[in-house]
Amino acid sequence: MNRLLHSSLAAVAVGAALSASAFAADPAGYVDFGKFSAAAGREFVEVNLQSGLLKFAAKVAATEEPEAAELLRNISHVRVNVIGMDDSNRVSTVERIEKIRADLEKQGWEKIVTVREGDGKGGDDVAVYMKSKGEDAIEGIVVTVIQDRGEAVLVNVVGDIRAEQLAKLGEHLDVHPLRKLKLKRKQDAEEAT
Length: 193
Fold this sequence. Notes:
Distance between the termini: 71 Å
Order of helices and strands: HEHHEHEEEEHH
Strand content: 25-35%
Low-confidence stretches: 1-24, 182-187
Helix content: 40-55%
Strand order of the largest sheet: 1-2-6-5-4-3
Number of strands: 6
Radius of gyration: 21 Å
Largest sheet: 6 strands, antiparallel
């Protein structure tokens, strides 16, 4: 009996150590959204891209889109969830997204975008969070969207994302908000001196 108790305790200790090391292995900008339930007959998409596939995409893009390739090389994980909602999963999905948002704020993520359309009874609800790494890099971005038309979207991009890379990509692809990152960083540096 005593040997069985010691073996059980040892197994629990090993399991806890493995769980802790697996948790510690998650990159700083990674957010575990958990599992969502699909509504019958509604769209349900889950994309989970790891480092290997992203590095491969960077190699493929290198000849045609060098700025995009440079950015892809620094991304270690991309997760996208699209959940179609109806009466069977709407409440649980919205509650989960609200909990994710609250947890991000408690963990020190910076809310950089908030959009709420309508009068609170309808319209889209968007929140975007960023986890910085110093002044020049982003470790993670999380986008959460609850659409009035019955769909929720969550995105988590993890890596060592540099503002100047986003700015270059914005210039190349003519995405105005990304182009302004470069100007904003220059203005911030000039104001600091």
